[in-house]
Design brief:
single chain; 395 residues; alpha/beta; ten-stranded mixed beta sheet; three-stranded antiparallel beta sheet; 15 helices; 43% helix; 19% strand; DHS-like_NAD/FAD-binding_dom
Length: 395
Amino acid sequence: MEKINVLHQMNELKKILSYSKNIGFFFGAGTSCAFGLPNISNLTQGVEDSLEPSLKDEFIKVRESLTQLIGKSIITIEDILNYIRQIRDITHEKDDREHDGISGVNAKQLDLAICRCIFDIIKGKEGNADITDIQKFLAWYDTSNRNYVKEIFTTNYDMLLEKAMEVNCIPYFDGFVGSYEPFFWPESIDKFVPVSELTGNWIRLWKIHGSLNWESKGGLNGEPLKIIRAGKIDEPQNEILIYPSKEKYNLSRKQPFIAYFDRLKNYLLRGELLFIFSGYSFFDQHINDVVFNCLRQNARLYAVVLCFSDEQVEFMQDFGKSYLNLCVMGPTKAIVNGNLCEWSFDDAEDDNDKSEFYWNEIDKNFTLGDFKKLIDFLIENSGRRSIIEEAIHAK
């Protein structure tokens, strides 16, 4: 396998970071795991353990059915939610209609119970999370690339980013407007606001798989269904909106995540952009379709994927070999210019580089797949560490 000097590659990345006026981010579950929240496997097990016995039996039945049906060895909570919601749809949630041995009523009860378990598990972990590093990242991001609106896309349900931005007093916008019961306003995210306008300096946060504080309200007896953002909540009053990956195509166009997907596509096609992925596994084909279509169409888009494991780099090999504007970097392997390579470390030409911010000399591996390491690297590379840390500690 071809060798590539990690110092040379990181010098290239530093140059790109220094001249890029438009930098966006896509965060997956790995970024929240860095702060103690469960990954999808642990979350699935946690939900199963938390369900009351009768619903737990239904949960196990669905999981075993899916194992036989789709042939996956690992069934996640998102697979289960997808399937349960399909049963809700085809049975119209009626007690006398069932599919795969699960009635429409039971499917609805199980769906609600699963979402409530997810809420309780993540809410509990959130309370113990130290968000100081996220505050530092957002302080860095808020004061960088001022020529463009700053945008973060995430599949995470948790509210660590919202909490950190509000502690930092950083204004942000997520597509909801209002104050009593903020409602989703899709027209507000169709348009790209110039950075010269007042809200142009706000960070855009697009949660494409839903959020713990989104709820659906109404929809009964002719009452229109509304999607509202409840703010800080301890006890959800309505059905929590957590979207598994397939459900987005079953909902109407104006529901949040369809509008967010349009935003993602339009953002990636909008000229020069450095787009950094952290903690995202690339297991969601719907997101991948948008990303790779945009990489094909926009030669000025450059995507950097930071992987926590080499298995993810190898998984990306088939995707990466067709795109010269995609760079995938893992602990010991990388995909550069379409080629799968192994890292080497040779500081003969540049021994002044602060490689400790991205290279573990003891383990001989690249470390930016860890979101906390990425934050540290970005801040060090900006040359504004003391200013950012003083600003955080002054809050």
